[in-house]
């Protein structure tokens, strides 16, 4: 097996399978898989700036902004001026956003069950640790371009 070729293919296949399943489960709730990740990041960390949120979910600020506009229109998030930085906006979940996230978490449980059914808890721990190494190593590439 040529690991240099297989790793990108395997990562893409895993991501796409997760994304497709999540999109299908959440479609009737009016939330995309990417929006779910954004809501989850806000729930974990509380109030963030839009920039911090983009960094937290490994996305670009313009994509995050577009998602936030839709989520705010649906009443899931609240954006406000940053108290000390006039150029920044802070973002937090609303009560509706928190309720929606709890519902989506339950709806997505079967996906997580399937993923965790394919590997042991120890393998999951190792996989998470290894996957977290990749963005850090690739961020060095960005500075070289």
TrEMBL record:
Residues 4-136 form the HTH marR-type domain. One of its GO terms (molecular function) is DNA binding. Coiled coil: none annotated. The keyword NADP does not apply. Transmembrane segments: none annotated. Keywords: DNA-binding, Transcription, Transcription regulation. Pfam families: MarR (PF01047). The keyword DNA-binding applies. PANTHER family: TRANSCRIPTIONAL REGULATOR, MARR, TRANSCRIPTIONAL REPRESSOR OF EMRAB OPERON. This is DNA-binding MarR family transcriptional regulator.
């Amino acid at each position: 097996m040529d690991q240099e070729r297989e790793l990108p293919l395997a990562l893409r296949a895993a991501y796409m399978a997760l994304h497709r399943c999540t999109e299908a489960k959440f479609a009737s709730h009016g939330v995309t898989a990417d929006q779910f990740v954004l809501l989850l990041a806000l729930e974990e960390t509380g109030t963030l700036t839009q920039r911090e949120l983009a960094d937290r979910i490994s996305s670009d600020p313009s994509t995050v902004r577009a998602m936030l506009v839709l989520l705010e229109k649906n009443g899931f998030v609240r954006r406000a001026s940053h108290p000390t930085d006039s150029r920044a906006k802070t973002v937090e979940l609303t009560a509706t956003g928190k309720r929606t996230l709890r519902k989506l978490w339950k709806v997505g449980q079967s996906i997580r069950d399937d993923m965790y059914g394919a590997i042991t808890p120890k393998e999951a721990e190792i996989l998470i640790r290894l996957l977290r190494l990749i963005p850090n190593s690739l961020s060095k590439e960005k500075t070289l371009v």
